Amino acid sequence: YDYVVRDQEVYLTKFKSASQVVEVPETIGGKKVVSIGNIFNENNTITSVTLPKSIRRIGAYAFYNCESLTNIQIAEGVTVIGDSAFSGCAELQEIVIPDSVLRIETMAFESCVGMREVVMSENLEFIGHQAFAMCSGLTVLNLIIITNAFKPEYFKGLRLSVNNARAFLLLLSFICAISYIALGIYLVPTIVIPIL
């Protein structure tokens, strides 16, 4: 790996191996590895990657167009999955997004056409524009009901329970993210919730 050290933390910048199965190290030189940049970008050799619990951010384009990638193990600790991080990973069939993840950024899983199942973080706060666009094989979405994405005060006067309202709005966000699949366009609905 090539890497930079900032404030005693390691940020990986380049992967220099022909290995198919990769275990990203938790430490390098006694310092924690906390972030990966676009180090696997368009790497068509890797098939499986395991990320350690020290990783906090999967950077933009980290696994962009890794067409042979079939398995990714994301440990608890990751809080952000960056823009287009897994875009074009056509062989990736399922993803378990750990509860530490708060944000899935723009087009993070766009064109993962082989994706069948997504298990969402319990604490997810944000799903970016077209995060799951063109995931045409997606058949199972496991949405955890409890999420911190929406605060109870947003739902005053509604007959929905807070948990149901949270799940409903997160689901709407997800539908927006994948609407390109069914309609060929990206729709952004406007939701007006009266505060009574």
Write the layout of secondary structure elements.
Elements: E1 2-6, E2 9-14, E3 21-23, E4 27-28, E5 31-36, E6 48-50, E7 57-58, E8 71-73, E9 80-81, E10 94-96, E11 103-104, E12 117-119, E13 126-127, E14 140-142, H1 162-183
Parallel strand pairs: 2-5, 3-6, 5-7, 6-8, 7-9, 9-11, 10-12, 11-13, 12-14
Antiparallel strand pairs: 1-2, 4-5
Describe the structure.
The chain is an alpha/beta fold. The relative contact order is 0.10. Helices cover about 10% and strands about 25% of the residues. The strands form three sheets. Strands 1, 2, 4, 5, 7, 9, 11 and 13 form an eight-stranded mixed beta sheet that branches. It has a three-stranded parallel beta sheet with strand order 3-6-8, with no helix packed on it. A three-stranded parallel beta sheet has the order 10-12-14, with no helix packed on it. The protein contains one helix and 14 strands. Strand 4 and strand 5 (about 30-35) form a beta hairpin.
